[in-house]
Structures are given as C-alpha cells and as structure tokens.
Amino acid sequence: MIQDCSPARLGFSEAFAAISARVLPLGCETVASHAASGRILAERVFAQRDHPPFAMAAMDGFAVAREDAGGSGERHLRLGAPQFAGDRAEPLSSGEARPIYTGAEIPPGAAAVLVQERARIAGASLLLAEPLADNLNIRSRGEDARCGECIAPAGLRVNPAIVGALCSFGIAEVRVRRMPRVALVTTGAELVPVGPAAGGAVIDANGPMIAALLAEAGCLLTGRHHVADDEAALTACLAACRDGGADIIVTTGGASVGARDLVRAAVEGGGAAVHFHGVHMRPGKPVLFASHAAGPLVFGLPGNPVAALVAARFFLLHAVRALQGREAEAPLTLLPASKVGDGWSENGPTRVLKARMSGYGADARVEILPGQQSHRLRPLLEANAWLVTGGGLPARLFPLFDHA
User: Fold this and answer.
1) pLDDT tens track for 125-162
2) CB 10 within 8 A of CB 275
3) Which CDD domains does the annotation name (predicted)?
4) pLDDT tens, 2-53?
5) What does pTM read for this prediction?
C-alpha cells in the first residue's frame, strides 16, 4: 500500500524553521565544574577569584628588588633563601636576590625576575650588570580573570579547556541545561547486529552511528530498541518511548512510502502530529518530523546510512541545539564557484555532498568526493565537511559533525 505523503515536502530551510517553531529549551541543573565537559551552560558564569590570585613568577629565576632592578653598572646582590610555589612570600630587601620558581608568589618589594639562564652567580652573590624592565617575567594578579568578571556566556558548550578555566577561576559548580533524553528505534526485519550475516540479512550500521552522533552532541540515550516490520509492535514501542520520558524519539528506516515503510502510520497512530514528511534534498529526502502536544519530538530517519546520517546531522541536531538553548548552527563559510570542484549547482533541490576542504584563506579549496550515493559510507573516511548546494543559494560549507 502506498501511503499519503502529505503534508507536502518542505524546502531545506523551511524544514529547519518547522523544527524551531516547536522546540523550547530544556530545564536546568547544577553540576560540579570538573564534571561539566560536554554540557551546555544555562547561564552566564562569573569568576569567583582573581586569576592569577597573586603576582607570581612566570619563570624560574631570581626575584630582584625595585631599587636594584633599575640600576646600572655591575651590582652584587646577596642570594636569599629560595621561594617555591606555595611558600609564603616574605618582603625582599634592597641588595638581595631571591631564587624563585615558576608559580611562586612574588615577594613584596620585588619588581622583576631575572631568568635563570641569564644569571651569573659568584659564590653567594648574583652579578647583575643590566637594568631589568618593570614586571619582567611576572604574571600580574588578575591578568587572566578578575573576581566578578563574566568569563563565559550562556549557551557555551563546555570542553576540557573550559573545565580547567572554571576551576582556576574558583567556580566549583555551574548551571547547565538538562541533557536531552533520546530513545532510538531501529526498524526492519532484515537488520542484524555486527557479525556474521546470513542470507538477505543486513548489518545494522544506522543504530550505532546515530547513537554515537547523539552521544557526541551531549544527549542521554535512554533506550535502544529494534522492531521488525510490524505496525502494531512499532506503535507500541513508540508509545513506550513516549511514556518513558524521552524528549526525542528517533527511528531509522521505514520512513519512505513503500509497503513496509510503517513509521508514519505508527507515529500518527500514537497521537503525534506530522509537520513534514519529506524534504526537497538529497540524500535524506524521506525524513519525517512530528511532535506530541505534551510529549517528545519524533524524527523518522531514512534507512540508507548516509541519508540517515545527513538527516540526523542537520535536522535532529538542529533540534538538539534548540533543546540545549544554543543558537542555530551557521555554516563555516559561503563559497564562490571558483573555490568548489565540479559536481554541484545552485539550481534544483538541495544536495548535501561529502567533501574535503584543504588549504587556508585565498588558497582554500573544496573537493567534492566520489561516491555520493546514499549507501556509500567509505567516502566519509576521507571527508571533513559537508557541502550544501542547490535551493537557489550559494554553496555552504559545514563541518562533518557539529562540535561547536
């Protein structure tokens, strides 16, 4: 039986708008800063201390008093007790040079640090024959952040470097968006797990691939299910996912209009409203988007693996960004024809092409890779970008995955 495919297919940009109109940011929770990597900040973050918290040595060397640092001619400065990181800094007297080590507090009265490699030692004295610039090799208090200063905006995705900054600035915990909860349902009696596959069996690549995509995007996978070609079983599975508290339900396969493409019927049978079923694009044309009035979003991804990946990479992750309170993704760049290889056009439906970007600035070029068919994953081993063309718009370049 051929299913009715209304509502009509949308354009690529129209599909994003349809999703945005039905997504609100999730609620917030507090997590320890050291455990925040991959999470999305829900509010601005302010430094809780100066960083550095005091003036400190930037190099191993010798702390020199202000009166001695600016002098001329050879000076003999007696060597004091060494100053290590964590030691309490005692005042530095004129005529004294104190051995000091990186990260140690600058003693009161010191104006500069002479690096160890430039030092001349004679017995118990430092021989100084040159003037030293004020604050030479000294990290000033608060030069990285001042207490009370806003150091990160809402919507920023925390990475390991940001974790380090948060901890350095005295921020023990942060408010983040709740992780989107996603239920993943693969469909098709032909699918089997990775391993020996007999007869007409097909190894399921979409399930692991989409699960990995969601994990990288900061989602919490609440369940993975497989349903054969049975509308009643699929309807029941989707209902269980809906009632289990998923924010998004994702299906793979069964999204087109063939006799065993049952996703739309099951989605509508479970009470969800279909907002689009099909987008004027290749690959990924049969993608479906629906939502429940007081429940999860539903994405029906195509069965061909590259089609599933493209639909998830752009439409599913667009919804994830909105749930996380982040702005919509912008392309890396718009490309003139001279920067793009053969095989694309501004006319016709949108095409999402496996591509490889090389070079920088004026030398940047984009190569459209061979093997653009929606079942061919191998070109993605070489790809580092998607080239989005057609729809009457200039070529747009996106990273292979959304890591922003």
Assistant:
1) 999 988 999 999 999 999 999 999 999 999 999 999 99
2) no
3) MoeA (cd00887)
4) 344 445 579 999 999 999 999 999 999 999 999 999 999 999 999 999 999 9
5) 0.85
The upper half-sphere exposure of residue 373, i.e. CA atoms within 13 Å in the direction of its Cβ, equals: 4
Beta carbons of 300 and 272 less than 8 angstroms apart: no
Give every CB contact of residue 381 below 8 A, 6+ residues apart in sequence.
none
CB 293 within 8 A of CB 361: no
Return the amino acid letter for 273. A
For 269, phi and psi rounded to 5 degrees?
Answer: -65, -25
SS (H, E, C) the chain: CCCCCCCCCECHHHHHHHHHCCCCCCCEEEEEHHHCCCCEECCCEECCCCECCCCEECCCEEEEEHHHHCCCCCEEEEECCCECCCCCCCCCCCCEEEEECCCCECCCCEEEEEEHHHCEEECCEEEECCCCCCCCCEECCCCCECCCCEEECCCCECCHHHHHHHHHCCCCEEEEECCCEEEEEEECCCEECCCCCCCCCEECCHHHHHHHHHHHCCCEEEEEEEECCCHHHHHHHHHHHHHCCCCEEEEECCCCCCCCCCHHHHHHHCCCEEEEECECEECCCCCEEEECCCCCEEEEECCCHHHHHHHHHHHHHHHHHHHCCCCCCCCCEEECHHHECCCCCCCCCEEEEEEEEECCHHHCEEEECCCCCCCCCHHHHCCCEEEEEECCEEEEEEECCCCC
The pLDDT-based confidence of 111 (bands split at 50, 70, 90) is very high
Q: What's the Cα-to-Cα distance from 216 to each of 30, 35, 230, 252, rounded to whole Å?
A: 21, 16, 31, 18
247: its two tokens: 């924010």
Please check whether residue 355 is in contact with residue 368, taking contact to mean a CB–CB distance below 8 angstroms.
yes
Q: Is residue 136 within 8 Å of residue 113, measured between CB atoms?
A: yes
- In degrees and rounded to multiples of 5, residue 307 shows phi and psi of -60, -45
Distance linking the first and last C-alpha atoms of the chain: 43
**CA separation for the pair 239, 227 (Å, rounded):** 13
Contact between 182 and 172 (Cβ < 8 Å): no
For the chain, list the domains and their CATH numbers. 12-27+179-323 (3.40.980.10), 34-51+143-177 (3.90.105.10), 56-139 (2.170.190.11), 333-399 (2.40.340)
